[in-house]
Amino acid sequence: MVFSRPKQPPVQILKSVSFNVGEGEFVCLLGPSGCGKSTLLNIAAGLLKPSAGTVSVDSKIVTGPGRDRGVVFQEYALFPWLTVRQNVILGAKSADGKFDGDKVDHFLIVTGMYDHRDKLPKELSGGMKQRAAIARTLANDPEIILMDEPFGALDPYTREALQDQLIELWSGSKKTILFVTHSVEEAAYLAGTVILLKAHPGELKATISNEVAWPRERASEDLIGIERTIRSVERT
Amino acid sequence: MSKERSTRLDTLENQLDTLEKKRFADFSLQNQNAMRVYKLISLVAFIAAWQLLDLVNGHFNFYNPLLFPSPLDIATRAAALWSTGVLQNHIVASVSRVFIGTLIAFPLAVVLGIGIARSRLFEVVFEPVVELIRPIPPLAVLPLFILWFGIGELSKLMFIAFAAFYIILTNVMLSAVNIDVVLVRAARTLGINGWRFYREIVFPAISPDLFIGVRLGLSAGFVMIVAAEFIAADVGLGYMINYARAFFRVSDMFVGALTIGFIGFAVNMVLVRIERQIFSWRVIDER
Fold first, then answer.
1. CATH fold of B71-278
2. How much is the ipTM here?
3. Inter-chain contact B186–A73, Cβ cutoff 8 Å?
4. Are A79 and B282 within 8 A, CB to CB?
């Protein structure tokens, strides 16, 4: 992936990166800033066109954004003029503008946003905004959920609560999740597979599989072991 | 020990009490409500001084009172013009021209503004012409409009539309260019495309700035309409002012000028109120 910039030489963000994500897997893309993990996610979402290489879903090459791949952004990206429920409805609407109200309420309930459904985004805390955004993405019913440092802007307590909620949603739905983070701890806790990238230009460094069974316990020996493995590979 | 503590609490409550009382009896310039009252007083004082000036001049005659009437003279004339219904006729004529003219400009400005901002094709076709005409002062084309559209209503409506068009267009264009990229991306990944994207994302996103554009367009319209009515009109506040000049009715000129100023001010104030109501979802950036 090469970025051409106005009045500046083009810059290579990503070099040889290749990996597979199986159906229903929870994969974390982990790496320092500048490793192109967000760029990679945006390419997968179809929001950026790679200068070389392809992303394919079920052997179909990605050419643009599509409903099969939902995205959760770090900036929440709720439409500020709509209430929480209206935001989720926008996700649930089919191309002809129809939506299933029960489905909308279901996703508001599972994300714990039902009681706040009539609030505007500006009335919500960061954690609540992200829960609403997740409900909206789920209501769009994608096969794959791409998450770009979704909890990066949240305080540690809220982050942990949302991580647990996400795991619950994931194990209930068995959707495929590709999750970008720069937190080793977060990757070790959430992922079944951690894909480690290195920076300048972004390159695949290692793939570490995390076999620790659910429910996982934070700061348990097993997870710390995974963290150690990740860190030791990072140093090489 | 506990007695000492309770007295301490007592003094604390007293302090809170006095602070609370102070809040109501705060006559300082830091109190917004007090400031409002003071501003009203200074306005009244100004008018009173003007009236007093007239009174003094009545004895000493150091200027011609015909050229500079007193507030009371103006108010009397206003009441007289109102009671015969003449003033209302002029108001209705001017105000409806401003509103209809702005209304004509509205759809074109919205479509072109969004189009130029969000579509390369629109931009390449329309932007050069739009930018070529933009720096032309509306007054410069007024005589042309009179030749083209006659001295009837149409020339004045088109003139107001011309003035309002660029103001609304600029607001819409800037706003549509600056729609948060993340919102656009979110919409795309949710499968919101084509016409739905414009209706459900772009339009609501720009609506506050569009509303401001309309408000500013109307304000400009109230400024411009007077000039248009000087040149070609047989009714309207601008006409009234110019007609009064020919007959040396200075009080009428004051009535006309103050009326148009007041209407522009009132319309703006009402729209600002509405704006705050319907766009309450807007996050006010406090930085």
1. MetI-like fold (1.10.3720)
2. 0.86
3. yes
4. no
